[in-house]
């Protein structure tokens, strides 16, 4: 709703965060006094309402007072919004510009008394964008210093958050809690050796009356988090996720802090690695399996429990090769039967041929999705680079090293990169998809022409280029995962 004629109410917005309470010049009383004096000096004989956010940070817009302010602006009952400093309203440029856009749409001017500008003027709007960038830059610098301190603590082996299940925290050091550690070992055994999935494990623990670290029932998610947490193999992992926004996002691996052998071990590293290979579906094929004289050695998985299937010998007096589930052979925990190796390899070759022949119909959508994701990742990297260049220009402008026109030119380039990112969301790169599909057919052709010609170890090198995993479900029923 546009502002109604005759509504001349001025809102005085004041905010302090907890860590600013003791700082000179930012107290709520000080802000009120300055804003009221400004109204008197400007001769505004109008109604003035105070909206206060006491103890709230300006890192986001989740503040009760700010929400009430926006609601009043949108209702058309406000003519001006006053603050003592720009960062009282927001320290994030994106949030700040969003608020200014809301004010402009409802014909409400925004005034900062310390910076002496009014958004009703073009120079005021330009200054606002520059100061907003500086305010956001200062906040990021503060955050970097905090993160640096936490990185130092993490590298010294100190635990920085709540203790995980199986441990207790004593003077910022993890110590093993024996009874919970036994449960952790059982969970890993149930998943790796007993063929139980997340749901079955959670159900078993709940039926036994065991509770999670938070005292709640176990769920699929809590079981998976336990199975994938590197703390249990003694590795300290920190800074893997960005929690600065509402939606947590995994950071790039180069930013992770991973310190092996820094914590008490509950799960042997070899067992932890096997569990996570099984979870990821991308096992690291041992060198011995790569050079074995059996075509599917290191690739074939049991359809019943997910364990690897290895070669055994059967029959007398004429012996023949069979693929048998290693969980049955080593632990007796799977009832999968043995399969003749020559038949399994025949089913596989036929299935691979049919899969690649029908590649356009079968996996085209998968390829489209993957190509799109790769393009998005590239554009996100370009956007991060553009943001970095812009922030460096903000720093240079703040230090007086460049002119305002240089900063605004960099801002224009940054905005263009943001626009390209938005355009990419709905785009479709037909040429890139066709190139991937053509490469897939070419790799299969090379493999199929080599069957019966090259020795098995050489043939497997070609096979590992196009196939990541093979699951034997039942007679002549095979699931093949391609490397796309």
TrEMBL record:
For the Resolvase/invertase-type recombinase catalytic domain, which residue ranges apply? Answer: 9-157
Listed CDD domains: Ser_Recombinase (cd00338)
Q: Which UniProt keywords apply?
A: DNA integration, DNA recombination, DNA-binding
InterPro entries assigned: DNA_bind_recomb_sf, DNA_bind_recombinase_dom, Recombinase_CS, Resolv_N, Resolvase-like_N_sf, SSR_resolvase, Zn_ribbon_recom_dom
Residue ranges occupied by any Recombinase domain in the UniProt entry: 164-286
This protein's superkingdom? Bacteria
**Record: active site:** 17
Return the SMART domains for the record: Resolvase
What this protein is called in its record is Recombinase family protein
């Amino acid at each position: 709703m546009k502002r109604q004629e005759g509504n001349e109410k001025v809102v005085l917005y004041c905010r302090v965060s907890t860590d600013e309470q003791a700082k000179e010049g930012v107290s709520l009383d000080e802000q009120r006094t300055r804003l009221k004096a400004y109204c008197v000096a400007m001769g505004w004989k109008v109604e003035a309402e105070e909206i206060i956010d006491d103890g709230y940070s300006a890192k986001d817009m989740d503040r009760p007072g700010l929400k009430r302010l926006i609601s009043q602006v949108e209702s058309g009952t406000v003519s001006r919004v006053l603050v003592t400093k720009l960062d009282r309203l927001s320290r994030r440029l994106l949030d700040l510009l969003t608020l200014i856009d809301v004010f402009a749409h409802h014909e409400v001017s925004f005034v900062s008394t310390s910076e002496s500008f009014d958004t009703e003027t073009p120079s005021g709007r330009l200054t606002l964008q520059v100061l907003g960038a500086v305010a956001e830059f200062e906040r990021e610098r503060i955050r970097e210093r905090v993160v640096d301190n936490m990185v130092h603590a993490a590298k010294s082996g100190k635990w920085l958050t709540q203790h995980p299940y199986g441990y207790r925290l004593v003077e910022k050091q993890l110590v093993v809690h024996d009874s919970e550690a036994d449960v952790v070992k059982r969970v890993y055994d149930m998943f790796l050796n007993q063929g139980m999935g997340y749901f079955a494990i959670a159900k078993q623990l709940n039926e036994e009356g065991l509770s999670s670290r938070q005292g709640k029932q176990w769920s699929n998610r809590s079981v998976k988090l336990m199975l994938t947490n590197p703390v249990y193999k003694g590795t300290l992992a920190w800074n893997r996720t960005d929690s600065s926004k509402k939606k947590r996002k995994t950071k790039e691996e180069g930013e992770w802090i991973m310190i092996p052998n820094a914590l008490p071990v509950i799960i042997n590293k070899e067992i932890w690695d096997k569990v996570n290979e099984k979870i990821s579906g991308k096992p690291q094929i041992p060198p011995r399996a790569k050079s074995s004289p059996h075509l599917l050695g290191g690739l074939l998985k049991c359809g019943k429990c997910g364990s690897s299937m290895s070669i055994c010998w059967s029959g007398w007096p004429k012996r023949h090769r069979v693929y048998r589930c290693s969980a049955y052979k080593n632990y007796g925990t799977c009832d999968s039967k043995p399969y003749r190796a020559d038949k399994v390899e025949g089913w596989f070759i036929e299935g691979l041929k049919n899969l690649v022949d029908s590649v356009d119909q079968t996996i085209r959508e998968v390829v489209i999705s993957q190509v799109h994701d790769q393009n998005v990742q590239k554009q996100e990297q370009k956007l991060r680079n553009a943001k970095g260049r812009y922030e460096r220009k903000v720093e240079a402008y703040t230090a007086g090293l460049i002119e305002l026109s240089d900063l605004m030119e960099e801002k224009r380039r940054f905005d263009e990169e943001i626009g390209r990112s938005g355009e990419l969301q709905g785009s479709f790169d037909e040429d890139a998809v066709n190139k991937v599909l053509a490469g897939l057919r070419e790799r299969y052709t090379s493999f199929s022409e080599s069957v019966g010609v090259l020795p098995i170890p050489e043939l497997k090198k070609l096979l590992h280029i196009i196939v990541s995993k093979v699951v034997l479900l039942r007679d002549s029923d095979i699931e093949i995962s391609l490397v796309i």
